[in-house]
Amino acid sequence: METTIQKWGNSLAVRLSRDVVQETNLQEGTRVRVTLEKGRIVVRAVRKRQYSLRGLLTRVTRKNIHAEFDKGDAVGKEAW
User: 5-57 adopts what CATH topology?
Assistant: First the structure.
């Protein structure tokens, strides 16, 4: 795809063709990260990281686990 950089307010913008948008699953409002890599402009969609409880718990070790702590007495209808 070849395009032209155009003025957009006080900034410059690049318009993406429908083919590029469809092939990359982009849509209006998609957040992207723009970086410079070896003299090239790279645009990547920012995808939300997917977390799982199992994956997070595998990162807990004896060195980074904290001790229990008391948050004080119940102030409502908490069941302890």
Answer: Pemi-like Protein 1; Chain: D (2.10.260)
